[in-house]
């Protein structure tokens, strides 16, 4: 009887997988697998899609790392990682979803991040300079208004929105993921909504360390890792975090992170250059099709992220009911279908 049940389970799984695969095939573009991996229109086959792109800055020329996955002249997504100072590794889950939908995408380590040059001049860690860097990357990769989708998550969402305010004529679509458009609003949500959800004794101890600015204390970090991260950053036990996420955190550049984000893991504080960033009153200037992604358990207020979609001229909201700040891992069921649908709807010219 046990053998029969096991065989039946295998058959059910096989049928289920077959059905899912058929649905994937139906969902893909008219590109064949061969066409999607066609290297003829690219000059990066020798390096497996990797390009080191020269970037001109006020402090000289440096190089940033990018890597292309796939080939589709109509749908190309440039991924802006968070941090600041994190890496492209946080997006490795995208490889499980976008290629089978025929969507070309680019990993990209911003200047200062792991695979790119890491100059020591702190004046380079400036939002406006990063905007100009993204524009130089766009030009080098040959992205334009007919195919260019810009995806930014967390700090990448700040960078993506700021880029759109200046260069949206080069965009086909914008995706702002897990980021509000005001750091003061983010801090308020952290202080008034998320902090009270912690056990009172844990919150008290965290705030004591923050008052002393003892951010490197192992006890402080362990409290954040044990009580805050698994609820609002990635809803998994830290011991079960994917290898790509662990590598991302191992490779953070603290100079970039602390300069722009500050030393606290509980908001943006101190002399962080992003502390007063707020473009809420400018969102109405963004006319390019825009997807805002929010999550129920995020460090950011999901209601604010829904509001973003109503404030831009042509917006859509994607809610991840089971997700947190890294919804591409803890709510893939909603994150990827919604992201893919947006890209394809914009490509087909369908109303949001």
Offer a concise description of the structure:
41% of the residues lie in helices and 15% in strands. The chain is of the alpha/beta class and 352 residues long. It starts with a helix and ends with a helix.
Q: How would you describe the overall organization of this protein?
A:
The chain has helices spanning 2-27, 33-36, 127-141, 155-167, 183-194, 200-211, 218-232, 243-250, 254-260, 302-311, 327-330, 332-348; strands at 50-57, 60-69, 76-80, 104-109, 148-153, 173-177, 290-295, 315-320. It is α/β, with parallel strands linked by helices and 352 residues long. It has three domains: 1-30; 34-183 and 275-348, 3-Layer(aba) Sandwich (Rossmann fold); 185-242, no CATH class. The protein has an eight-stranded mixed sheet with strand order 1-2-4-3-5-6-7-8, sandwiched between helices. Helix 3 crosses helix 4 and helix 6 (200-211) crosses helix 7. The longest helix has 26 residues, at 2-27. The chain is globular and about 60 Å long. Belongs to the peptidase S33 family. Keywords: Hydrolase. Residues 77-331 form the AB hydrolase-1 domain. GO terms for molecular function: hydrolase activity. It holds the Pfam family Abhydrolase_1.
